[in-house]
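User: quick one, sequence for these tokens?
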């Protein structure tokens, strides 16, 4: 006797209704509602996270530029300057040799955004203000004392997004720390 793969008419297997894969409208709407609630709850936390990361990244980039300038000044036994963008530190900086034939060693430009008036704006605020350059002499020390850089988010509270402090010690080495007081010393 041959066995057949197909069920014979009248057998219990033949009388079962076919199951169709898919979602019901109720399941789909429930899933969309859960996703919408999660999005509403997480978007404010995510935007705070992004602003905090911008502050950290800018502080680490500035520390890198200062460390590069110090190392190049020592290597070349000549002055090297970290200079703010013409619009201010929040729009970037460059590291270059000074004197005879200036050479740009590193250029860091942050994206420039335009506000409603068409003026450049930034997500960050830097202190000290415009015009403060940092110059290392051939021994790797600063030619003039520099106040601590305070890097903060242009929006949000300092309790929510603590500013970062970039300080340069007496030997010329920069370091970045988080400010728990809301301002740098």
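Assistant:
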């Amino acid at each position: 006797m041959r066995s057949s793969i197909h069920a014979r008419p009248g057998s219990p297997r033949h009388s079962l209704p076919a199951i169709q894969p898919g979602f019901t409208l109720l399941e789909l709407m429930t899933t969309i509602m859960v996703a919408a609630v999660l999005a509403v709850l997480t978007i404010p936390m995510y935007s705070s996270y992004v602003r905090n990361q911008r502050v950290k990244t800018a502080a680490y980039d500035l520390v890198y530029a200062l460390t590069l300038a110090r190392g190049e000044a020592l290597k070349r036994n000549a002055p090297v300057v970290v200079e703010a963008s013409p619009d201010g530190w929040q729009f970037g900086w460059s590291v270059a040799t000074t004197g005879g034939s200036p050479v740009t060693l590193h250029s860091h430009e942050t994206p420039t955004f335009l506000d409603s008036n068409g003026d450049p704006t930034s997500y960050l605020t830097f202190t000290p203000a415009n015009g403060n350059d940092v110059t290392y002499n051939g021994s790797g020390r600063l030619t003039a004392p520099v106040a601590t850089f305070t890097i903060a988010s242009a929006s949000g509270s300092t309790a929510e997004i603590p500013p970062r402090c970039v300080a340069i010690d007496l030997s010329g080495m920069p370091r970045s720390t988080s400010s728990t007081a809301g301002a740098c010393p």
